[in-house]
Amino acid sequence: MHQSNQTDRHLREIARLRKAVVRLQDLATKYRQSEVVQKALFKISELASSVTDMQQFYQSVHNIIGDLMVAKNFFICLYDQRGDTIQFVYFVDEYDDIPSLESIPAELLDKGLTGYVMRNGKPFLYDESVFKRLLESGEILDLGAAPVDWLGVPLLSDSRVIGAMVVQSYTEDVRYSEAEKELLMFVSQHIVNALERVRQREMMQAEIDHQTAKLRQINDDLKLEISERERAQQLSSVLFAISEVTNTSDSMQSFYAQLYQHIGRLINNDNFFVALLNDECTHLHFPYYVDTFDSNMHKQRPLGRGMTEYVIRTKRPVFIDQQKYRELLASGDIEASTSYYGTQPTQWLGSPLVVDDEVIGVLSVQTYSDKVQYKQDDLELLNFVSQHVAVAIERRRNADEIKRVNIYLERKVAERTEELVNEIERRKKIEEKLFYDAHHDALTGLPNRSMFTERLQQTLKHKRRYPQHNFAVLFVDLDRFKDINDTLGHSAGDEFLLEASRRIGECIRENDTVARLGGDEFVILLEMIRSIDDACDIANRIIEKMRLPFVYGETEHYSGASIGIAECQARNDSAERLLRDADAAMYQAKSMGRGRYVVFDESIHKDLVASLNREAELRHAQFDQDFILQRNQLLAMDEQHPMDEQHPMGQELVLRWQRGNSLLHPDRFTVIADKAGMTTALDHWMLTRCCELLAADANALPVHVSISSKNLFKLSDVKALQEIIVAANVAPERIVFQFSEIELHDHSKRQLSCLRQLADFGVGLTLNEFGRSAGALQYLMNYPFTHVKLDPRFVANIAVSERAQVMVRHVVQLCRDLNIQILAAGVNSIEQQQALLNNGVLMGQGSYFGEPEQVLTPSQQHAELPLSVNAEAF
Questions:
Q1: What integer is the mean pLDDT of 753-758?
Q2: Are the CB atoms for 831 and 795 separated by under 8 Å?
Q3: Distance CA 805, CA 836 (A)
Q4: How many other CB atoms are there within 10 angstroms of residue 312's CB atom?
Q5: pLDDT tens figures, 464-522
Q6: Are 352 and 312 in contact, with CB atoms under 8 Å apart?
């Protein structure tokens, strides 16, 4: 029993070992197959770099496939997508004929098994039943001998079918399996990669060959071009040398000898001569010749019918070889060669020497040997040279005349040169003066706007390179220049500007620039300043200088300067910005009372923009719609009567600008109106409305109306005011003109004359805002004022200041002595009224007596104007 069990175990072990041996044999077979496949793939990879042409590649692929499976019948076809054709690049078959290597339209093979594989892009293993089914369905057609077995795989490149590879069998002992299909499909991908590399290499080689051929052709062309250029260069050199010889030769014989040498550099001229006609055109003269055959040529001979004479008759260059010579003999154009004409050459070139369309001779080269051959280019060259020879001969003939003319011309040239030198000097001075005038002010000689802008731009560029270097621009406006110019005349104005420019120049450094922009405006460029304080110091010096009196004739006149300062803030500043800001700062200084300087900041720019906007609104304003008159009663102050029983002595009509819902006081827009040139027009409109009120009411109280002193510079302006009053048929005595003390100027003869004319006309004259300036008493003494109105700021302190009361008492006494009525403006409290009465002022106006009321003239009665007033009105 125990022995039987051992036998069974032994048998089972033997069976297990046999199975293991079978598995090992299978594995060994697979390893051998894998090794074969690896070797095949390695060979395919090597093909890409080892084969020399495509047919060798396809043959090697066939051999490799034959190592993997039976491949007696094998072909490779490739698809050309551009032409939609298929080409059998490799074909081996036992029964079918080898297809043409030329491309076959794809549609012819589309129904075959090969076309089926290429259409589907998948491998196909022949199965008889499947084959018949495909035939019956019409998907394929039987295009060749029916195989026993057929295996085809597509050749894919980037998922695109580029061809097919097929093995087939016509015997039963050779069959293909699924494993071989997968193997062939696997191998096909490596074949495609190798094929692509080989094709790329062939294409690259073809391109290299093509480019090499092109480079070779280019090289040949360059060699030809270089050869032609060398010849052209040599030709140019010779022609230049011939041209130089024409001008530099000492004699004709020297010219001919050098001409001969230069022509020899281009063509063979072993036999060369120059022939000239005499003046009577009966003989030929040979001034120069070289001949290897005829050493004793005649220096001169009569004209005959030789080749030289033929050129003279035809007036064109001629190339005569043996054939041409026989033709000319046959036609009788020339006669046969004799000793008279010299030895007959094998080739002869002759070109006429032409001067003024007349042939004066011939230039010729010839050869007696076949070793030397001339071409048509040589004739053209000879023809060109003949032109230079003809010029040289003509030049020699005219040498004496040229010499005489040259002497004459040299003398004339010397004279003309001297004249031109003088003219050039004169024009240079004119140009310098024009340049100076274009960049300088004609009156002061200072740089003008153009030159100042150039220097300012240069300084800005310097600032960009050296940010630590500071500079500033000063805009200077002379105060009261217009008054001086209008009062004393333009000559005095010019003297004033010259003196002003001199004073400004004394206040600046040598490296600074002062320029006049026009009128009374000057600008200064201060370079290399430490800080803005340096600019302020210079501005102060200028202001102090300008406060000194200007002497014209025997009188002194006073002006001043308002200065705006703009400092360069950044490297990207512009000249326009600096000038604009300095100008804005200057106007700010003028608005603050003149005689001072202002450094620009952004608030000034904002005010300037607001001023421009207000000026635009003012220009578009309609007088009868946007301006109104308000009445302030002028009352006789009496402490015995209550305020509502005070006796009115007159009425003051004041102008207000109705801007939206606000009524603007004249202080808010008179400066703008002055800049816009509307001041006189507003005065005329206001006076016209006042006259309408007086004309409509004969019992109306006298009207006090504020008029700008700009009406006092021209008698025509005064006459215009008078005409308005006369046209309204109003008595002048019912109107009192009020002129602000601060607008009047000391020693203004023109203002004084205009005021006297108004006084003679009959209107009353009030010195308004009395006490605001230092020259008030001067005006009382010299000007024909009938009324004096105390300034509201003067009145505001009278109730609390003993000094103010003392001054008022003295002014009251002075006015009584001068028979001038005195009244107070700005009486806003009973204490002020009482103080004024105590000191002799009996008439006044102000909010204490009531708020102003709007007045409608008869021409405005048809339109109701709003009466709303806010705080901006006062």
A1: 89
A2: no
A3: 8
A4: 20
A5: 888 888 999 999 998 888 777 777 788 888 888 999 999 999 999 989 999 998 888 99
A6: yes
Sign of torsion, CA 336 341 345 347?
negative
State how far the Cα of 823 lies from the Cα of 802, in Å rounded to an integer: 19
Q: Which run of H or E residues covers position 233?
A: helix 178-248
Dihedral class, residue 346 (left if φ above 0, else alpha if ψ from -120 to 50, else beta): alpha
Angle between helices 532-547 and 490-506 (to 10 degrees): 140
562 φψ region: left (φ > 0), alpha (ψ -120 to 50), beta (else): beta
Tell me how far apart the terminal alpha carbons of the chain are, to the nearest angstrom. 145
> Which distant-in-sequence residues (6+ apart) come within 8 Å of 705 by Cβ?
652, 653, 686, 687, 690, 735, 736, 737, 738
Q: Angle CA(476)–CA(479)–CA(482) in degrees, nearest 5?
A: 115
User: Quick one: CA dihedral 463, 466, 467, 471, positive or negative?
Assistant: negative
Q: Is 333 helix (H, G, I), strand (E, B) or coil?
A: coil
How many angstroms separate the CA atoms of 835 and 816, rounded?
18
Residue 868: the pLDDT is 39
Rounded to 5°, the CA angle 575-577-581 comes to 120
CA gap 91, 447 in Å, rounded = 99
Burial class (CB in 10 A: 0-12, 13-18, 19+), 595: middle
Question: Tell me, what's the pLDDT at 41?
Answer: 66
Buried b (16+ CB within 10 A) or exposed e, 711-733: bbbeeebbeebeebbeebebebe
Torsion of CA 305, 310, 311, 314, to 10 degrees: 140
Hey, what are 379's tokens? 């004739």
**C-alpha torsion 412→417→423→427, nearest 10:** 150
**pLDDT, tens digit, for every residue of 713-741?**
888 889 999 999 999 999 999 999 988 88
Please state, in angstroms and rounded to a whole number, the distance separating the CA atoms of residues 826 and 844: 8
Does 327 have pLDDT greater than 70? Answer: yes
| Under 8 Å between Cβ of 298 and 286 | yes
Q: Where are the beta strands (DSSP E) in 660-699?
A: 662-664
> Nearest 5°: CA angle at 231, between 226 and 233?
90
Q: Would you tell me how many other CB atoms lie within 10 Å of the CB of residue 586?
A: 26
Contact by Cβ (8 Å): 682, 705: no
Residue 549 contacts residue 569 (beta carbons within 8 Å): no
HSE-CB at 829 with a 13 A cutoff on CA atoms is 9
Is 358 or 42 the better-scoring residue by pLDDT?
Answer: 358
What are the residue numbers of the active site?
A: 520
pTM for the whole structure: 0.42
Q: Mean pLDDT over all residues of the chain?
A: 82
pLDDT of amino acid 454: 92
Q: Which two tokens stand for residue 233?
A: 């260069």
The DSSP-derived string for 707-768 is: --GGGGS-HHHHHHHHHHHHHTT--GGGEEEEEEGGG--TT-HHHHHHHHHHHHHT-EEEEE
